[in-house]
Design goal:
single chain, 537 residues, 19 strands, globular
């Protein structure tokens, strides 16, 4: 597989393509849980259902096919994991709005990110100390963030500097402040340190060697997705699904290329795991995969070109937990070099193809998310993991077993801890109020197309991407201008008495209407969700 192929115009599916190159149920002890006890009766029912679906004989037990359900013995981990003592990827630096606060979430913690008067990134708890209104619904005034409920204003250090309702000369209460979080801009990504006990540990801040190399080319996209970040990570570390789920999405993913994969774990610790994998039919291309706590997944491939020079292709996924059943993904796909024609491909075309890939998986992953929440048992009781495709998935769930006691909620291979509180669904404003309050895409959206629906492509990607937003706005303007000009040409054709002018004006109207249709089609390509042919009504 050539380097030019790896650097083709379809970045995300190609990134996934780089990653691709029945038994009898036995009785087991009740799974250990943290914070949540599984009912023995419920568990027995689930096992009975699993047994009923198994019709294999002893000879059918394929130990060489299925991964062992029991976890291997590991040395006791001395370090105690705490999800707060970590850096989380908040946003792409280039996409942070210049003129508005941005509301984001890490697990169940809501934060607001913005730039102060000097352009310095600031992050606070997304809650006004007055009456708990969201600061992300506010505005920036002279570099300060203002709560639009009563007009309280806060500096970058969280100190309140203005309360309009106080009488002249009155002092602002010391308690009128907002909690702040440390943020760092590293390699084009904004990271937040969530701990309220310890100062930022810079040794834990991720650093990606390839992306720091001079001349290393990368394309980044950001996506909001309607399922848990653990399911997203599972999907991204699963190269076996690419030929099936993304068949013909680009020039490389093909159903007939589905094959056994050879996967080997090389390292494992409380900080994650790493290993290598290769396609059994193409063993020359060895991929290196690593998962770094809490939510960084990287896949690297080294290729030696005809001149003997090493060339690198890297797929980097930064997966932030954005609440129960929600996640935010930053995708970075890079290479040492790219084809000359690659620079001619518009970024919006690459981005829409990335969106298409996620939409192809969305139905599977959303339903998987629903089942895990409903069944309330570890994945050991639900998954049938194959040696030739699911090694990373099982390794990830086992990692959760080791660190789960230090996480707000999780589902591991043998243990789990469900959320203590159900997620609160915030209803978006509708009608005229929504049109006024959400006039800028970065702050929401206008109309049905832009409604904050996690299955809507505009909401999932375009509101987070300045480039795509600009293209969408220009396409709308061009489409409307072409239609108006065509109407003017038709009017002129009706009013003119000269036959040749009538023909010319009508021909011009046809060309203008054609142009309007082209702009409309591109608009739809960027904003409309992908639906498989057999699912269309």
């Amino acid at each position: 597989m050539s380097l030019s192929l790896h650097s083709s115009l379809f970045l995300l599916p190609l990134c996934k393509t780089l990653q691709q190159s029945s038994s009898i149920c036995t009785s087991r002890s009740l799974p250990v849980t943290h914070g949540y006890r599984i009912s023995p009766i419920a568990l027995a029912k689930k096992r009975t259902r699993l047994k009923q679906c198994q019709v294999a004989t002893v000879e059918d037990i394929a130990e060489d096919v299925l991964l062992p359900r029991e976890a291997e013995e590991l040395k006791e981990i001395e370090e105690k994991y705490d999800w707060r003592e970590e850096w989380y990827p908040l946003y792409l630096t280039a996409e942070v709005p210049e003129d508005a606060p941005l509301g984001l979430t890490v697990f169940h913690k809501q934060v607001v990110l913005y730039r102060d008067f000097n352009g310095v990134l600031r992050c606070h708890e997304d809650r006004c100390p007055h009456r708990l209104a969201k600061l992300s619904e506010g505005q920036l005034v002279d570099g300060r963030i203002e709560c639009l409920y009563h007009g309280w204003q806060f500096e970058g250090d969280g100190k309140c500097v203005k309360i309009p309702q106080l009488p002249e000369g009155a002092k602002i209460p010391r308690a009128a402040c907002v909690r702040t979080y440390e943020v760092r801009d590293s390699q084009g990504v904004v990271w937040v340190w969530m701990s309220d006990k310890n100062p930022p540990n810079l040794s834990k801040l991720p650093w990606f060697e390839h992306y720091a190399k001079p001349g290393f080319l990368d394309t980044s996209t950001i996506h909001e997705l309607p399922y848990d970040h653990s399911i997203l990570l599972e999907n991204l570390m699963d190269p076996a699904h690419v030929p099936i789920s993304h068949d013909r999405t680009d020039w490389t993913a093909k159903r007939e290329d589905a094959q056994p994969l050879v996967m080997k774990v090389k390292e494992r610790s409380i900080r994650g795991f790493a290993g290598q994998w290769v396609r059994s039919k193409n063993p020359a291309f060895m991929n290196s995969l690593s998962f770094q706590a809490p939510c960084v997944l990287q896949n690297n491939l080294q290729i030696v070109d005809k001149k003997g020079v090493p060339q690198y292709v890297s797929a980097l996924f930064l997966c932030r937990p954005a609440g129960q059943g929600k996640s935010m993904l930053i995708v970075r796909f890079g290479a040492s070099s790219s084809p000359i024609l690659f620079d001619l491909i518009p970024k919006w075309f690459i981005h829409q193809n990335s969106c298409k890939v996620f939409e192809q998986d969305m139905g599977f992953l959303s339903s998987q998310n629903e089942v895990l929440i409903r069944e309330k048992v570890p994945t050991k009781e639900l998954y049938l993991n194959l040696k030739f495709s699911d090694t990373w998935v099982m390794e990830y769930r086992k990692w959760m077993d080791r660190v789960g006691s230090g996480m707000p909620y999780y589902v591991g291979h043998e243990t789990l801890s469900m959320p203590l509180e159900a997620a609160v669904i915030e209803q978006a404003p509708v009608g005229a109020a929504a049109a006024v309050s959400a006039s800028m895409p970065a702050k929401g959206g206008v109309g049905e197309l832009y409604a904050p629906n996690p299955t809507n492509r505009y909401y999932r990607h375009i509101i987070h991407c300045k480039g795509c937003r600009i293209v969408v706005k220009r396409l709308e303007i061009l489409k409307n201008v072409m239609r108006l000009l065509s109407l003017a040409a038709i009017t002129a054709a009706i009013l003119t008495a000269e036959r040749q002018w009538k023909v010319a004006m009508l021909a011009l109207a046809v060309v203008l209407l054609g142009a309007a249709q082209v702009f409309s089609s591109i608009f739809d390509l960027i904003t409309r969700n992908f639906i498989r042919e057999h699912r269309r009504l």
